[in-house]
Amino acid sequence: MEVIIRPDAEKTAQLAATFIAQKIKEKQKIVLGLATGRTMERIYAILVQMHKNEGLDFSGCHSFNLDEYIGLSAEDPNSYRSYMDYHLFRHVNIDLKNTHVPNGMAQDVHSEGKRYEKEIRKVGGIDLQLLGIGETGHIGFNEPLSALMSRTRDKSLTPHTRQQNAEMFGGDPEKVPSRAMTMGVGTILEARSILLVALGESKASILAKAVEGPITSMISASALQLHSACRILVDEAAASQLSGRQYYDWVFQNEPEYAQYR
Ligand code: F6R
């Protein structure tokens, strides 16, 4: 695991977009695992700019979103499919046939989970998984006590997460769906590389526990400590409770692989 701290949210988003763009350029057919939420909005906006201004080519991209609310159709403005269309897909040259979001309207959630996993396998697995982190420590919607080997399935959201996401539902946590389909922690850990982005002080405490605390199913993000190619990219505010930050900064300032990003 490597932790990179940037001075503010904008510089963090710029570097996240740079890492993603680099992956896209590296491989003709690339499989991206995508996240939604406030943290990702600016990152997608920068990727759209890169497409428009520099010709960043999404035609070889396949994508799999982490999660979708159960009970919301793809057309619902609050669905994660709508979010992806709005923030990224409709502005770049990705083939919509190659974009995947779990079906929140599936009658049989068990089969839907299996189908989603099969689709990921069919394209050879995820090359780069993009993640945010929830205040409960969730990645995807893997709330506390999600098995560290879990696969795509339905999951109940905690009251805290419904509160965290209420803003998108007119401020009323009761309007936030109570369940979601989500890739499992085990699904996420199979990605060949992972980039987790966290912004703001509200993430500082949970981020420190996830990165520097023990691995526990109470904090799904702590399972990322097991992954051999995981970058954690955060702004100053989100980094404020990390005890090892002097070392993380030293690595970023001195490792040759980071020279081009400093
Ligand atoms: C979204 C997702 C969630 C979010 C997390 C952070 O697809 O899987 O894990 O990444 O809740 O959300 P924001 O960025 O809104 O703080």
Reading the helices and strands in chain order gives EHEHEEHEHEEHEHEHEHH
Structural class assignment: alpha/beta
- Cross-sheet strand order for the largest sheet: 1-10-9-6-2-3-5
| Small molecules bound in the structure, each named once | fructose -6-phosphate
Question: Regions with pLDDT < 50 over 5+ consecutive residues?
Answer: none
Q: In percent, how helical is the residue content? A: 25-40%
How far do the termini sit from each other? 19 Å
**Radius of gyration based on Cα positions:** 17 Å
Largest sheet, strands/sense/barrel: 7 strands, parallel
Number of helices: 9
Percent of residues in beta strands: 15-25%
The shape, in one word, is globular
Rounded average pLDDT = 97
| β-strand number | 10
Give a concise summary.
The protein is α/β, with parallel strands linked by helices and 262 residues long. It is 35% helix and 17% strand.
List the helices and strands and how they pair.
Blueprint: E1 2-6, H1 9-26, E2 30-34, H2 38-54, E3 61-65, E4 67-69, H3 80-87, E5 99-100, H4 109-122, E6 128-131, E7 153-156, H5 159-164, E8 179-182, H6 185-189, E9 193-198, H7 204-212, E10 230-235, H8 236-239, H9 245-254
Parallel strand pairs: 1-10, 2-3, 2-6, 3-5, 6-9, 9-10
Antiparallel strand pairs: 4-8, 7-8
The structure holds fructose -6-phosphate.
